[in-house]
Write a structure and sequence with these properties.
Blueprint (H helix, E strand, L loop, with lengths): L1 H18 L13 E6 L6 H10 L7 E7 L10 E4 L12 H8 L4 E5 L5 H9 L5 E3 L10 E2 L7 H14 L5
Parallel strand pairs: 1-2, 1-4, 2-3, 4-5, 5-6
């Protein structure tokens, strides 16, 4: 019951974030990229780094934030956030995650399928200029939704390159 209350309050904060989003830099060129992933997809981090380098992004300009609900894994090389570090009021009590959400990425990819309240909240908190979601995600959160499953990285790479090229984000 307490978890449901927290999720309801996060949803309210998400709605508020959607209303105040800055869309002025939506068409900037791709130089930095960020990924928000679930702890179940930790093995995909290297694949995502290869994807970003295939888009011409230097390794220093690619960041991954891993959300953890089940267990706290502090051995992760990249930034991570445990669900208990998100308060009832929707404040993030993790310096690295807070820095990640305030980073003005040229493209932020929500590397998860379907609605996931904590991950959706993190996407809404992000100051990224252009947000990309995968199949069955909340359309209000993303500027582009690619209809591929996260497990199909070849199709994801192909679709992402195509759309980013058409939108003028790639050279």
């Amino acid at each position: 019951m307490l978890t449901n209350l927290k999720l309801k309050l996060l949803k309210k904060k998400l709605e508020k974030n959607l209303k105040k989003r800055d869309m002025s830099q939506l068409h900037s060129r791709l130089e930095t990229i960020g990924f928000i992933i679930d702890e179940k997809d930790i093995t995909a981090i290297e694949t995502l780094r290869k994807l970003s380098s295939s888009l011409g992004i230097e390794d220093d300009n690619c960041k991954v934030l891993t959300f953890q609900k089940l267990k706290k894994n502090t051995k992760l090389k990249d930034d991570h956030l445990h669900h208990k570090q998100i308060s009832w009021r929707g404040t993030i009590d993790n310096v690295n995650a807070l820095r990640f959400t305030k980073e003005p990425f040229d493209v932020l990819i929500g590397y998860y399928n379907g609605a996931q309240p904590y991950l959706d909240f993190l996407i809404s908190e992000s100051d990224a200029r252009f947000k990309v979601g995968l199949a069955a995600s909340d359309l209000r959160l993303f500027d582009l939704q690619i209809q591929v499953q996260k497990s199909n990285t070849i199709s994801l790479k192909k679709e992402l390159e195509t759309y980013l090229h058409v939108l003028g984000k790639l050279n």
